[in-house]
Amino acid sequence: MIRLSLRDLQWRRRRFAIVVLVASLAFGLGLVMSGVINQMHREGENTVALFGADQWVVADGVGGPFTSSQLLDAGLVRQLEGASGVANASPLIIGRTTIDQLDVNIVGYEPTDPLLPDKLSVALDEAEGGGALADLTLQRPVGDDIVLGGERIPIVALVEDTAFFFSAPTVFLPLADVQRLLFAGRDVVSTVMIDGHIDPNTTTIDDMQLDVLTNNDVRADFDRILRSTTDTIGILNVLLWLMAAGIVAAIIYVGVLERTREFATLKALGTTSQALFGGLLLQAAAIAIVSALVSVVVAWTVSPLFGFPVTVPLDAYLQLPVIALLVGAIASLVGVRRIARIDPAVAFGGAS
After folding, report:
1. How do the domains of the chain map onto residue ranges?
2. Do the Cβ atoms of 59 and 71 come closer than 8 Å?
């Protein structure tokens, strides 16, 4: 039965190729969706890890520094610097704007900040003169200008892997420049990063109407913003797997209908329904596995077309053959009942 099933696929090779192509598109898009979800999950972790803070001080009731526009008086930095358990207190201001109709994250920092990310410190050392540090995703070269608050600011260095919120490019500027250009010169900050751990017994955080967040708190708040999107993409991913199963099931069922007399002949010769089903399962598995292999090429081809990085996790590739086999098994079930009902007499011209 194994050889017969494979020969049947070879005989119908044109149909086999078409089914593989269509199913591989579904599998490939499923891989891409997995990559999109993975990238979104990584954004919060990577963004928080970019800075060396142990704790984040925000306004009372604010979920996190990256998702709120509520600001703090920058004078709090000096008060927190003297708090028990605090080695360093570093201000950060976070905003959003558009540059040439492109959504951009703006991060204001203190150039002498001890919690400044290493990649920014290296970029500042390489830069000549003051200006903006831009993420590579902005697709602007060093020496180019960006317009912010009606003022032209030169890009003095490039950094990478700092984009966040659906991989929107990030532009880093000195804190005073961001306050002047985006906040009308007000001496405000979005958060104060803490090196150390504030002692709640000696620091009157509640009296100052502030909240202290851990890195886990900030990551959870970051992921909250993206959760509805990732859940929606997850549903689409499941629908793509089901679509692939439906495609394989349809072609298997059509094949069973076309081979009714052939199956009847095999039954008349003593072949059991279980053996016939095994051959059908082999065909469905072969179609699904080949489709899964082709889908990897589809995913690699489609991923660069997205407007943000698509990072397909290794476990998605490892799970793909298992999912493909499961799809093949489910698809083959549509022909089981049909095979079981075939009367051997059909081989001799009897009723089907």
Report:
1. 2-43+225-348, 61-208
2. yes
